[in-house]
């Protein structure tokens, strides 16, 4: 039986290199920003969220409540800052609530 080499690589490092090699980082950011929105905004806001799209550093969030849309519009800068901190990079520069 042949000896195994003990060059262990973590799954996180392996997935990171796979994503970089196949140019999938933008697609992963779109998924991660949806998860970050749900985590930061909580179940109350998520229940009124109809769509989330990331297009060239602009996060477009569809909301079914006009009252909630107005309330969130007052804190756009704070929401952008919180999302970028959660993502660990400058992913969102503009937030559109529709």
UniProtKB/TrEMBL annotation:
Pfam families the UniProt entry points to: DciA
Superkingdom of source: Bacteria
Name under which the protein is recorded: RNA-binding protein
């Amino acid at each position: 039986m042949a000896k195994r080499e003990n060059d262990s690589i973590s799954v996180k490092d392996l997935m990171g290199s796979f994503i970089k090699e196949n140019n999938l980082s933008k697609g992963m950011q779109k998924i991660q920003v949806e998860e970050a929105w749900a985590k930061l905004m909580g179940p109350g806001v998520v229940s009124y969220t109809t769509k989330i799209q990331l297009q060239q550093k602009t996060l477009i969030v569809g909301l079914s409540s006009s009252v909630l849309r107005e309330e969130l519009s007052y804190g756009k800068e704070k929401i952008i800052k919180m999302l970028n901190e959660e993502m660990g990079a400058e992913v969102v520069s503009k937030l559109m609530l529709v």
